[in-house]
Predict the structure of TusA-related sulfurtransferase.
Amino acid sequence: MSTKFDITETLDVTGLNCPMPVVKTKQATDELTEGDVLEVVATDSGSMSDLKGWANTTDGVELLEQQEGEDGGEAVYRHFVRKTE
């Protein structure tokens, strides 16, 4: 997988369902510095809309990209969030 940005940290929320991927992502972004990029790896299909909605309504973060794929036959969703403030 190739991305257009440097990943600062990866957060593994596989196996967690709504609302935990968003809760854990918010906690992780609170610890980042402006400009850092967090990769969030999830298995909850709802994370696609949940994280997009959260990023669109939250100051200080920007959703850069979302990707859907598979890992060992299991659906995996990757989200890339930049801290902007």
Notes: Residues 9-83 form a domain with the Translation Initiation Factor IF3 fold (CATH 3.30.110.40). Strands lie at 9-12, 37-42, 61-71, 74-83. The first helix runs from residue 20 to 30. The helical segments are 20-30, 47-56.
